[in-house]
Design brief:
Length: 287
């Protein structure tokens, strides 16, 4: 890491409730820069195959970003269980988190017009849907009782780390590798042969259309990802985004597998450490 870079003080606010959906209290951890501000903010959406994972995966990113003038709100969202789907619920949770930080922008010293989404793996799927399709009737205005329900959900950027952008392709991989528990079927509440439209709607690549191209996108993935096929997801998504006129940049990590996004950024030879300055350059330009 560049030891000469400028870093500043920040504060953390852990376990902040941002919404209650269907009697489920939803919380997040805030990493807020100290200083004049107002500061840009990313909403962090963790991975875990739609059925597990914790917002603590962002503990290193939260501190790294906040020390460099970018707030992070790492959130929990509803996880799928057998017989209990969470689509489109998880996307609606993330949209509520966006509304929460925008609605509290003054209190948090956040710039309400400089909000983005940072999603890893399954969180890349959910986060990309929130960023690109937040205004879609499938996701929008679903919880009018939310304190900030009337606040906008638009964002400036989406940053995805080894995200899942084509759920039909991923369903096929799960069907082969773990036929007894297909996480995507649990998340969506049905199989691909039963409802292809559902899988189309839940795939961010379907929303890579010209009408949504005001969002700048940064995608990162490793060359040795052993879970999410780079070509079928990141590369295909990049192509679709470019075709639709999006500003899109990539960071390809040589030798990186899946599951490195929560690694310490300052660790020697850390893949997160390789991504960090490149992501910061993108955010400095677009967020």
């Amino acid at each position: 890491m560049n030891t000469g870079e400028k870093v500043g003080e920040f504060e953390t606010r852990m376990g902040v409730t941002y919404a209650t959906h269907d009697s489920v209290a939803l919380a997040g951890d805030l990493y807020l820069p100290k200083g004049a501000g107002p500061f840009p903010v990313l909403v962090g959406v963790h991975g875990g195959g739609w059925v597990q994972g914790v917002r603590g995966q962002f503990q290193h990113w939260g501190k790294y970003l906040a020390a460099r003038g970018i707030a992070l709100f790492a959130v929990s969202y509803r996880l799928a269980k057998p017989g209990q789907k969470t689509f489109p619920h998880a996307v609606q949770d993330v949209l509520a988190a966006i509304q929460f930080v925008r609605g509290n922008a003054t209190d948090f010293n956040i710039a309400p017009d400089r909000i983005g989404v940072f999603g890893h793996s399954a969180g890349g799927n959910i986060g990309a849907l929130a960023a690109l399709a937040g205004g879609n009737p499938l996701f929008a205005s679903s919880y009018p009782q939310d304190p900030h329900a009337k606040v906008g959900t638009q964002v400036k950027v989406f940053a995805g780390v080894y995200g899942v952008y084509d759920l039909a392709e991923m369903w096929g991989k799960y069907a082969i590798q773990s036929p007894k528990q297909n996480n995507i079927e649990m998340f969506l509440g049905g199989s691909l042969p039963d409802n292809r439209q559902l899988y189309f709607d839940a795939s961010p690549i379907s929303h890579a259309i010209s009408a949504n191209n005001k969002v700048a996108v940064h995608l990162s993935v490793g060359t040795e990802d052993d879970l999410v096929d780079r070509g079928a997801h990141t590369d295909a998504f990049v192509l679709a985004l470019k075709q639709a006129g999006f500003f899109v940049r990539t960071t390809i990590l040589q030798g990186a597998p899946h599951y490195w996004g929560s690694d310490p950024i300052d660790e020697v030879n850390s893949f997160s450490g390789f991504l960090a300055p490149r992501l910061m350059r993108f955010l400095a330009e677009k967020l």
